[in-house]
Amino acid sequence: MSPSFRHAAVFLPLTLGLTLAGGNASAQQPLQPVRQVVMTFLGQQTSGLPGKIGVTVEGLDPQNQLPPCAELTPFLPPGTRAWGRINVGVRCESPVNWTVYVPAQVSVVGEYLVTARPIRAGQIISPADLERRTGDLAGEAPNTLTDMTQAVGHNARYTIAAGNPLRADMLRLPQTVRQGQNVKIVGAGSGFTVTSEGRALNAAAAGEPVRIRLNNGQVVSGKARTDGTVELDF
After folding, report:
1. Is the full-model pTM beyond 0.90?
2. Would you state the CATH architecture of domain 175-232?
3. Strand runs (DSSP E) across the chain, as ranges?
C-alpha cells in the first residue's frame, strides 16, 4: 500500500510537545526523515502480524517550526499497539530535544469468521454455521475469531444474527484461567518485555479480561491466553 502524505496543520499544534534546547530557529525539520523513521518502525512492529499489512503515515506540516534533528527515535505511547488508527511518537535526541506525534493507520487484511445463518442461544456451533470473510482485522473487535477451531463445538451465549463477525465473548469457551489461580503474566512493548506472576481475581476464557493481583499487592488487568498465561494491557 502506498503511504499517503497529508499535512497535519491542525493536528500538530494540539499534540506537539516541545522542549527546545537551543538551535537555529530559522531552520526547519525536513519532512521525509520523520516519515521514513515511522514507516520503518511500523514495519518492524507489524512483522509478526497475520494477513496482508498496509501502513499509511501522515506527514508533518511543511510549515513546522521544529529545529532540524540528527537523531530521530520512534516509539509507541503506553497502551498503544501497531493496529488500526494510531499516533506514533518521534523523539529528537540530538542536537536538540523535541517530541512530535505522527498520525498513522495500520491495516491487517485477513480472514475472519462470520455467522452464515442465525444462531440460537445455547446452540452448539458447527462448520455449517460459519463462513469466512476477508477484511481489515484492525477494523474489527480485538477478540474477533479467525479460525474454525476457535468456535466449532462451543455453545452460543445468546442469539446471534446471520452475517455478524463472531467474537470470543459470543461463545461459552472453556476457562483457561481460574479464579484464585497463580498465573504467569507477560507483556511486551516498544523495546521491552515484562514477565511476572500473580493471582487471578476472576475466571476467564481465552481473549477475556482478567484482573491479577501481583505479589506486591498491585492489581493489573490483562487478557487470558489459550495457554493459561495472561497478556498485560498497557
Report:
1. no
2. Roll (2.30)
3. 17-18, 52-57, 71-75, 84-94, 98-115, 130-136, 155-156, 171-172, 175-177, 182-189, 192-200, 204-205, 209-214, 219-224, 230-232
Position 99 pLDDT exceeds 60? yes
Q: Is the pLDDT of residue 15 over 50?
A: no
Q: Tell me the C-alpha distance between 35 and 159, whole Å.
A: 46
Distance CA 172, CA 207 (A): 12
Q: Are 60 and 100 in contact (CB under 8 A)?
A: yes
Q: Right CATH number for 109-172 from 3.90.1210.10, 1.10.510.10, 2.30.110.10, 1.25.40.20?
A: 3.90.1210.10
**What pLDDT shows up at residue 143?**
85
| Backbone Cα Rg of the chain | 22
Mean pLDDT, range 77-83, rounded to an integer: 85
CA distances from residue 118 to 29, 67, 114, 155, 174 in whole angstroms, order as listed = 56, 59, 11, 13, 23
